[in-house]
Design goal:
Length: about 450
Amino acid sequence: MNTFETDYLVVGAGATALSFVDSLLDQTDARITIVDKRDTPGGHWNDAYPFVRLHQPSSYYGVASTPMGKERIDTVGLNAGFEELASGPEILSYFHAIMRDRFLPSGRVRFLPLTEYLEDGALRHVLTDARTQITYKRLVDARICENGIPLTHVRKFDVEDGVVCIPPNDVPRRAKDHRHFTILGAGKTAMDTAVWLLGHGVDAGQIRWVMPRDPWVINRAFSQPSGAFYKHVMKGTAQQMAAARDAKTIDELALGMEAAGLWMRFDPDVMPQIMHGPTLSQAEFELLRGIKDIVRLGHVTAIEPGKMTLKGGVLDAPDSLYVDCTARALGHTDTWPIFTEERIGLQMIRLFQPMFSAALLAKIESLPLDNKAKNALAAPVPMTDDVRSWLRSQIATSMNQFAWGQVPELKEWINQSRLDGFGRPSREVDRNDPQVKALYDQVRAVAMPAFANMQKLVASG
């Protein structure tokens, strides 16, 4: 049996693990070993469907040391007017280059692909079954936030012979053989699939969309990270704070976000029940609203030729290509202490920002603090399910950000980090500009009342 020592053993080579390692390389002189059951780095991006793109601009995704994209503004397509969104192949290539050109040449990172972590430092090579025993000082577990993947997840419904049901990965190859399409799921994968079909000439009338619960959708116009968008983004932030301050109920808050143009819903007569953070441009959203055959009878339980059974009823079903978009990307709504004697459990510490969170956790790990003090700076922020849980996670994020602001070293790191897309706009504008100052003062004035009311709303049943 092979044996060796390392300072940090990182289980997983997905996006968050690589972001943590990248930051740890800069902040420490530690030796790091990464193990992953896949043969290449990049985690779920290795199995992503071919038309996937980031929700958010490329400029604040990836690892802190290395830019992704060119901060280019798209001039054509459904994202026109906003910063570029990296495609799946671009992201995978980026992570491969991080490993090849930065991590391995450092001489301090060892990557063991096709390797399963067992327990207590025991590793197993998945092809040869060869065993390795590794002695480490800190275990970093990146599996807590592991994504559900359309290509590999286990379906929760039955599909009989004679029905063609595929993951979105196969849509470009199989779509040409069909004239009707049924999209299963209400998340971003389902939206991406519908946009791909519509963008390639499929008529909206040829699509049925099974939407178990309607989603709130975030307007991408308010997540642009450059100074050129500062006034628009800060106005949106002020409107969000005002909606949070004034709402008497959870539904009132959501409707206030909609009235400000921050959130969108597909049907004005249906109150969405889920908030998972999907982000679309207005152009993408309007394209999707052209789909009128939307089934709202809960989750599918079975599909057979000519019939689809859902929790809320049974429907006649035309001959159709069924696209399974029911995998839940980030499904964890529970949290665990991040820093313990046994491990560092990578989780979000800023809502919807796993890459920033992982990089900042490495910075916090580098500080001369005990685990209790580190955890005080890193309350885990769970993935959201509905508006109430979105509020809880926003409160947790705000409390973390307040704590970071009290530590000069963390504040300076955040101010210089390319992954801090929220802070970049304010760093790229003239703070003496009267309009800039007025917007900044407006947000500051409403922030505390909004935070106090958010806590009341979460506690109100």
